[in-house]
Write a structure and sequence with these properties.
Shape: globular
Number of domains: 3
CATH topology of the largest domain: Rossmann fold
Oligomer: single chain
Strand order of the largest sheet: 2-3-4-1-5-7-6
Number of helices: 15
Structural class: alpha/beta
CATH architecture of the largest domain: 3-Layer(aba) Sandwich
CATH class of the largest domain: Alpha Beta
């Protein structure tokens, strides 16, 4: 999956400053669906091109919509631009999308000549023109033909855009409209997607002739979300001239709130040596590694692929030796005893227990609370009562969840486990708490009641 950005505004290599990516290097980023690369096939004073290449890992494409066993492998997702590419744009060009450039702030505010190409994109010539044309782009969307023996055109186009615009505006146009052309999202569309749409559509979406189509497709045809977005477009007024430079508060995602709650719990129990059990791709590990109060950090997962991803996320191979020695990665199943996990200050099970089959939970409890026996254990898990707020959600939040507990069920399990293994337990809400259904995530802090000499 490929997207290229080209400018001829001299010196053209200043594009590297705007994107915060040096033209002489190949930059790689781990994303939830694979690996994104940023490289420069050409970089001269006269012309500079930055390419975003997304290498999709089919094994990470777990979709509940797959209707047959190999659905995650037999599809166009690794090749045709979609919300996967839009998400990679947001990850790799975050500063550029905000219009921020430490080295070239005046250039970030300037409209520059740009050429954009997306070689394979699901959509039609007409729709591409209707979406990008009103934004001032010269649009060329060439249908990609099927194989000669079949004849005719496929449902994909080779999209080329040319025009003069701020780079931030161009990136935000792409971030919104690529998923709209594809008409699919690779992740669950929750209410916070409205804020993403309005933030990236600021200054252009409200006056776009296809704003209704954009809102409905971007929000996965969830009518109440689209209606809410459109109503906010109608009433939201642009800031007054003197307020234009004021910072806009960003809504903190539930994943960030959960991570911060776990870090706060670890600080509360004064943990320095920490186990991240079921660490997955390393989201929490990366946060732990940035905090010097944690002198030893262990990530543990049964999946070697997840550990490879975690290693890349914390840039383990690039860390100075002293920092690298703080971090260890172990492949281990949490339902089997592992002596390497004994003797730590705290262990974290962040969104892990719901992935374990209920008959195997006693084995996990014995391994973590009985054998490893850290001074403290922090556990987070979804609150099933909150699921009613996710429109269209039937069943559980993730296809790999084996169960999701109500607050009463989680507290019952936690208290029984604490009593069995000699811990005290307290509970915390994570996320915005609803007066009836409680928070989206529930957290428990177990602290050992053993008296140490």
């Amino acid at each position: 999956m490929l997207l290229t950005l080209t400018t001829t505004r001299r010196p053209a290599t200043d594009l590297g400053y705007l994107l915060v990516k040096h033209p002489d290097r190949v930059h790689s980023f781990d994303v939830p669906t694979g690996t994104a690369y940023v490289l420069y096939p050409e970089a001269t004073d006269e012309r500079c091109t930055a390419a975003l290449l997304l290498d999709v890992d089919p094994q990470r494409l777990r979709s509940q919509r797959d209707t047959f066993e190999l659905g995650q492998y037999v599809n166009d997702r690794p090749y045709a631009a979609s919300s996967l590419l839009a998400a990679a744009l947001a990850k790799t060009f975050r500063s550029a999308m905000r219009g921020a450039s430490k080295d070239r702030p005046e250039l970030a505010a300037e409209s520059i000549p740009l050429e954009i190409r997306v070689p394979v994109l699901r959509g039609t010539t007409d729709l591409a023109a209707r979406l990008f044309g009103p934004l001032g782009w010269d649009v060329t969307a060439t249908p990609i033909p099927l194989e000669p023996e079949i004849g005719g055109d496929s449902r994909y186009v080779d999209l080329r855009l040319a025009g003069t615009a701020r780079l931030a505006d161009a990136l935000n146009h792409l971030y919104v409209l690529l998923p709209v052309l594809d008409d699919a999202k690779h992740y669950w569309v929750a209410p916070d997607e409205i804020d993403k749409l309005l933030r990236s559509g600021a200054g252009w979406l409200a006056n776009h002739p296809e704003k209704v189509l954009v809102a409905r497709r971007y929000l996965a045809h969830r009518k109440h979300l689209a209606d809410s977005a459109l109503s906010r477009l109608e009433v939201d007024e642009p800031p007054a001239e003197e307020e234009a430079e004021l910072p806009v508060a960003r809504k903190v995602s539930l994943a960030e709130q959960r991570r911060d709650a776990v870090l706060a719990a670890l600080a509360e129990v004064d943990a320095a040596r920490v186990l991240d059990l079921g660490c997955g791709g390393g989201a929490l590990l990366a946060a732990l590694a940035k905090d010097r109060r944690f002198t030893e950090i262990v990530g543990c997962d049964v999946s070697s692929r997840a550990l490879d991803q975690a290693s890349r996320r914390v840039r383990l191979d690039r860390l100075p030796e002293r920092q690298r020695d703080r971090i260890k990665l172990y492949q281990s199943a949490l339902t089997y005893r592992d002596d390497r996990l004994r003797g730590y200050d705290a262990a974290v099970l962040m969104e892990v227990i719901e992935h374990v089959d209920p008959p195997r939970l006693p084995a996990l409890e014995a391994t973590v609370f009985g054998h490893a026996r850290p001074r403290a254990v922090v556990v987070t898990t979804p609150n099933a009562e909150y699921n009613v707020h996710y429109e269209g959600l039937s069943g559980m939040r993730h296809s790999d969840h084996r169960f999701e507990w109500t607050r009463a069920e989680f507290e019952d399990w936690a208290r029984r486990t604490a009593d069995r293994y000699g811990y005290a337990v307290t509970f915390r809400p994570v996320g915005e708490e609803h007066e009836t259904t409680g928070p989206p995530t529930q957290l428990a802090i177990f602290t050992s009641t053993e008296v140490t000499a």
